Amino acid sequence: MPKHVSIVDVEAMSELRQAGAVVLDARSMRQRGLRFLSGAVRVLWTDTCAGGQRCGLLAEPSVVAERFAGLGVCWARPVVVVGAGASGWGEGARVAWSLAWLNHPAVHWLPLFGPPPKGRSGKSIKPSTGWDGTVRDELRAPNGTDIPDGSVVVDVRSPTEQAGARRYGEARGGHIPGARFVTMESLWSASGMTHPDRVRALAVNAGIPLDGDLVCVCTGGVRSAAAALMLEAAAVGRTIRNHDGGMWAWSADRSRPMQCRPSLGSKPS
After folding, report:
1. Distance, CA of 197 to CA of 201 (rounded, Å)
2. Can you give the pLDDT of all 269 residues of the chain as single tens digits?
3. Domain co-membership, 129 together with 214
4. Which of 25, 111, 141, 173: disulfide with 166, CB 3.0–4.6 Å?
5. Residue 65: enclosing H or E segment and its boundaries?
């Protein structure tokens, strides 16, 4: 499976900046400790959304592309999106995934651990190439809400959320029936991402087919975007889609089934 987003480290980001890459900083003020990444452009993961309270659904492609163009993104230059690593929700991954969905050819995600590096951006290149009007439908759940037939749902929320806790304003608690469970916390190590071999072992233990068609889901398409990129990097799944509507959208539609995972430590009845 081709990697649609490259996961990079600080050294690689510095080289990309020198080559003229656009750097987007998707960390919140709290996550960056009031220290902004020099030479980067501030971006919010919600810039990709259709709008409205508790909505993770992507806006129309032309709208998202226009918002990115307003930040200086062009399709002839690499883009590095900086996120907060394990201390964040996956905001940087959501932005990077959105650019990949818009068929940007060179998207990189840097999950940053520790303070941001010093340094200036590289050579200035005038934006010249805009969005070509195409999207990669294979990266997104159909309509942002549906599950394709034969796909395996990978729920990356916490066990309490999977068991029914409505921590972020979901209309109903629980999970999509038949989902497999791998929490986002398990995909991070103390200093970075969990080793790919360990990620693959976690997937196997959770009943996730390594050659299956997967749909990652969380509350609003942020954690699930990070999980999708990390599973892709570990060669888990034949195809991996992000369910950007998440449980906000799924639980709000009463026609969609839900069930609750037994709480950890509970005794079987």
Report:
1. 6
2. 678 999 999 999 999 999 999 999 999 876 656 567 888 999 999 999 998 788 999 999 999 999 999 999 999 999 999 999 888 899 999 999 999 999 999 999 999 876 666 655 444 445 557 899 999 999 999 999 999 999 999 999 999 999 999 999 999 999 999 999 999 999 998 778 999 999 999 999 999 999 999 999 999 999 999 999 999 999 999 999 999 999 999 999 999 999 998 865 444 33
3. no
4. 173
5. helix 61-70
**pTM: predicted TM-score of the whole model, two decimal places:** 0.92
Q: Give the neighbor-by-neighbor strand order of the sheet with 22-25.
A: 6-7, 107-111, 79-83, 22-25, 41-42
Q: Are residues 196 and 84 in the same domain?
A: no
**Contact predicate 233/7, CB 8 Å:** yes
User: Considering the domain boundaries, does residue 262 fall inside one?
Assistant: no
DSSP secondary structure letter of residue 38? T
